[in-house]
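tokens incoming
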């Protein structure tokens, strides 16, 4: 308590609460402690800090504010384990002891303060500060993702327009994906065709040095043609289906563009601005009429 000077408590009051509590801890010569795991010491520090706030709020001079902190710490220590009757007696005796350090008005204000806080909630103070608690604490560290920096208002757009643009982008991406899938399918069918032809002609190198009979040659050619026709047939079926899918996507994009939402007009000034707004209105009106005809 030797470092608890008027200048020290004044600095505690001038700081924000977290910094003020930390400065008060150093003035009291307390070692650093974990606020979560040592809740008793944290509550005690809060009580001493609140006594400073009370005294300054009542207009105590800084010398008396330091005395109020000292008074609070002594009262909490001396009443530990006492009954409420004993606590009231200790409070009265301590107020008499501080008559020479506080003027009468401030002494009465301090008496009211401790009656309305410490004595009124005495059992709670004793339960928290007077006995050991079996605390089971689990600390979980969570990562907080802050929202992205919003764009300037000038770069904003109506929600309906934004949704329309997003839908157009989705349809375009689906069309590109369909075309890529078609290319992959062609390559896969070509590989499958080559594999079937190789399986059909496992002994072809053996026939390179002899003349094939007409019937054997016709069978080989017919089987090769059959394999190519089947692969081509399968490829055409896939191409027709994917082409219809792509046309459907194009039709959806066309319909969306014809029924695109009208953006909210920006504030305009002057004749040129009015003409531009009028032209925009007419264009949108014509586009909607064309869509209805379709």
């Amino acid at each position: 308590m030797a470092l608890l000077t008027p200048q020290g408590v004044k600095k505690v009051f001038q700081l924000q609460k977290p910094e003020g509590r930390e400065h008060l801890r150093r003035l009291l010569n307390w070692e650093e402690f974990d606020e979560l795991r040592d809740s008793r010491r944290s509550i005690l520090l809060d009580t001493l800090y609140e006594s400073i706030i009370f005294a300054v709020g009542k207009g105590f001079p800084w010398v008396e504010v330091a005395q109020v902190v000292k008074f609070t710490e002594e009262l909490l220590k001396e009443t530990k384990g006492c009954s409420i009757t004993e606590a009231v007696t200790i409070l009265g005796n301590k107020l008499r002891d501080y008559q020479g350090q506080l003027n009468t008005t401030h002494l009465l204000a301090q008496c009211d303060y401790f009656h309305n806080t410490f004595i009124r909630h005495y059992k709670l103070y004793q339960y928290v500060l007077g006995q050991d608690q079996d605390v089971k604490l689990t600390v979980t560290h969570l990562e907080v993702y802050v929202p992205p920096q919003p764009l300037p208002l000038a770069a904003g757009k109506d929600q309906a327009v934004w949704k329309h643009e997003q839908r157009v982008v989705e349809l375009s991406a689906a069309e590109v994906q369909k075309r890529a899938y078609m290319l992959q399918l062609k390559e896969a069918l070509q590989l499958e065709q080559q594999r079937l032809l190789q399986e059909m002609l496992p002994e072809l190198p053996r026939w390179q040095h002899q003349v094939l009979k007409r019937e054997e040659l016709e069978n080989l050619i017919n089987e090769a043609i059959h394999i190519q026709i089947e692969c081509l047939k399968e490829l055409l079926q896939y191409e027709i289906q994917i082409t219809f899918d792509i046309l459907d996507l194009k039709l959806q994009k066309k319909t969306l563009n014809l029924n695109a939402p009208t953006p909210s007009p920006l504030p305009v000034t002057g004749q040129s601005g009015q003409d531009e707004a009028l032209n925009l209105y007419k264009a949108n009106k014509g586009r909607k009429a064309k869509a209805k005809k379709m």
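note: The chain has two domains: 6-129, 159-260.
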